[in-house]
Design brief:
This protein is α/β, with parallel strands linked by helices. About 40% of the residues lie in helices and about 15% in strands. It has a single domain, classed as Alpha-Beta Barrel (TIM Barrel), CATH 3.20.20.70.
């Protein structure tokens, strides 16, 4: 054995001392994860006492409003901070101009009213503002001459946001990526008397290949007919552009900015966190969820360990909150009785 290995001074700094016992590892842990950091997306369908499994997202179901309300109550009991609603609009109610988005009795508004009546202010209700659940062409905005037009779309989004606030939304989440929509929605909400309703802007939403299962879940994949959203969602190769998008949304009044997808864009989350003094949300999207689920089902990974590690990585990168389909599972994992360190 070399002499230096036997020297009392080798090495002087031993990083492993702070990893030696569980108590010291937990005491010095830099990043923490709890159910309060989670937002649970829920897909809502028409009918009563109905649930539909989503084959590309094992364990995730579309729920009728009564069951969605029960599910939201369960999430609240586990300490989850908010739910995010996504309507599965029947094809018969979709149109070229997405007019059903402005029906106060659409799935989004009815589900919001039901959950708000049941839970009051005990948890947040995040409502998606975009036209893709309502358009027959599957795009997030109005389509004219095969082009998604910006300003006319923003006018509709403002009306949609106010309707959702009237139904009981506590956070409006514009996911459409139209220019100027955050400022216009903020002005509309304020003028309608909803100055306390927050805006969680999908600020850096990329034209990602990871959205496939979500589009299956809400039925927009068939509407798109192989098209894409690259003229309004961001190029996955760009990071400086994300910073400009975030800066503009903050200037326009966003309360929380979001990065979507999550895991492939941890660098974007970290850069936004380090640059702006604003809460950052990360969306662990459907494709990320499906990869972990299918790998787990095949025995390739330990689902519990990988779910918690992936969620912790969002927190470590700087995310204040995480939209994840694993929210219910993760909240169970994080309960003190589960023995899982957070």
């Amino acid at each position: 054995m070399p002499d230096h290995f036997q020297s009392p001074s080798f090495p002087q700094t031993r990083m492993r001392r702070n990893r030696r016992w569980p108590w010291v590892r937990e005491m010095l842990q830099e990043t923490h994860l709890s159910a309060q950091n989670l937002i649970w997306p829920i897909f809502v369908i028409e009918g009563t006492n109905r649930r539909e499994p989503i084959s590309s997202m094992p364990g995730v179901e579309r729920l009728s409003i009564d069951l969605a309300t029960q599910a939201a109550a369960q999430a609240a009991s586990l300490g989850i901070s908010a739910i995010a609603l996504f309507p599965v609009t029947p094809a018969s109610k979709k149109s070229n101009d997405g007019s059903h988005a402005l029906d106060p009795d659409n799935l989004m508004c009815c589900a919001t009213r039901s959950i708000a009546a049941e839970l009051g202010e005990s948890m947040g209700i995040v409502c998606d503002v975009a036209l893709d659940p309502y358009t027959s062409h599957g795009h997030d905005g109005l389509l004219i001459d095969n082009d998604v037009v910006n300003d006319a779309t923003v006018d509709v989004l403002c009306k949609q946001a106010v309707l959702q606030a009237e139904a009981g939304a506590t956070i409006i989440a514009p996911s459409d990526m139209m220019d100027g929509r955050v400022g216009a929605i903020r002005k509309s909400l304020d003028q309608a008397g909803f100055s306390d309703v927050g805006i969680m802007s999908y600020s850096a939403k990329y034209a990602s290949a990871f959205y496939g299962p979500f589009r299956d879940a809400v039925g927009s994949a068939s509407s798109l007919k192989g098209g894409d959203k690259k003229t309004y969602q961001m190029n996955p190769a760009n990071t400086d552009e994300a910073m400009r998008e975030v800066a503009l949304d903050i200037q326009e009044g966003a309360d929380i900015v979001m990065v979507k997808p999550g895991m492939p864009y941890l660098d974007i989350i970290r850069r936004i966190h380090d640059t702006f003094q604003i809460p950052v949300a990360a969306y662990q999207v459907s494709g990320e969820y499906a990869m972990l689920k299918f790998a787990s089902e095949k025995g390739a990974i330990n689902e519990r360990a990988c779910v918690l590690e992936s969620l912790m990585s969002f927190r470590r990168a700087g995310a204040s909150c995480i939209l994840t389909y694993f929210a219910l599972q993760a909240a169970e994992y994080l309960r003190p009785s589960s023995g899982s360190a957070s």
